[in-house]
Amino acid sequence: MPKTLNIIIYPDKTLRVKCIEIKKVDDKIRRLISDMELTMKEKDGVGLAGPQVGQTIRVIIINTKDGPLAMVNPKITKKSWRKESGEEGCLSIPDFYGSVKRHKKINVIYTDKHNKKIKLAAEGLFARVIQHEIDHLNGVLFIDYLPKKNLKDLPEE
User: Fold this and answer.
1) Which of 74, 83, 107, 121 could join 78 in a cystine, given CB atoms 3.0 to 4.6 angstroms apart?
2) Is 136 marked as binding a ligand?
3) Residue 44 domain-assigned (yes or no)
């Protein structure tokens, strides 16, 4: 039975860790994925990354119209030259939003929860969420893209 996980809140140092690759998706990882899916739904998120729940491994969950999509070891293989700005927030930085410029289209390769390699093309909000969550795996937060003057309301790291 999946359980709700605690969300790590900024400025916790876990959010700045570069996550390690997962060698093989086993039952422990699949259980974590189920817990992350439930947590994302309950917290009304559009995405969730391992470090946000205290796991410094390369796993993200994206909320899609077809339900949650788990990506293990996701890598962006292609980015459009065109970018667009859009407002972003983060479950780990509650009640704080900012406009971030991201690639409009991306291609990504990842492993699914059955250890299958998947290639995917994404655009618009879907591409934005994937980029945001992959940033988490590299210790990057959306606030890193914002001008310093916009960060005065945030706690110090």
Assistant:
1) 107
2) yes
3) yes
Domain assignment present for 6: no
pLDDT in tens, 62-86: 999 999 999 999 999 999 999 999 9
Helices (H), the chain: 27-42, 124-137
Interatomic CA distance for residues 86 and 144, integer angstroms: 15
SS3 5: coil
**What angle is formed at CA 92 by the lines to CA 72 and CA 57, rounded to 5 degrees?**
25
Residue 140, domain extent: 13-151
Residue 156 counted as domain residue: no
CB 92 within 8 A of CB 15: yes
**Residues 3-52 pLDDT 10s:** 999 999 999 999 999 999 999 999 999 999 999 999 999 999 999 999 99
Residue 133 is among the residues annotated as catalytic for this protein: yes
CATH number at residue 106: 3.90.45.10
Tokens 């998947």: give the residue: 118
Q: Which of 21, 133, 156, 157 is catalytic?
A: 133
Whether 45 and 64 have beta carbons less than 8 Å apart is answered as no
Alpha-carbon distance of 151 to 126, in angstroms, equals 26
